[in-house]
Write a structure and sequence with these properties.
Elements: H1 5-13, E1 19-27, E2 30-41, E3 45-50, E4 59-63, H2 64-68, E5 72-75, H3 87-91
Antiparallel strand pairs: 1-2, 1-5, 2-3, 3-4
């Protein structure tokens, strides 16, 4: 089964308030890791309230399309078996 934006959004809506780690690829093998709490979901994006002292930002947002296209990697350290993009399992 292939993920859709609606299925990703529904999964994230059920995880609001949970700890989240987002790894963003910025090219040439470099990545940025954001850690915080998933605080809000909107029709086209979701918001993460960053942990204190991380970066110079208080919040960051990403689109569901970022998850669908594997532009970002999401991990929920307090939850096991959260699968946002089932195609990742098919590739393994």
């Amino acid at each position: 089964m292939t993920a859709t934006i609606n299925s990703i959004k529904a999964t994230l809506e059920g995880l609001v308030g949970e700890s989240i780690i987002v790894t963003v690829s910025i090219g040439r093998g470099r990545t940025i890791v954001h850690e915080g709490i998933l605080t809000e979901t909107y029709p086209a994006l979701f918001v993460i309230e960053l942990d204190d002292g991380e970066d110079s930002y208080e919040r960051v947002s990403f689109s569901y399309a970022d998850v669908l296209t594997d532009s970002i990697d999401i991990d929920f350290p307090d939850k096991e078996d959260v699968l946002l993009n089932p195609k990742e399992e098919e590739d393994k």
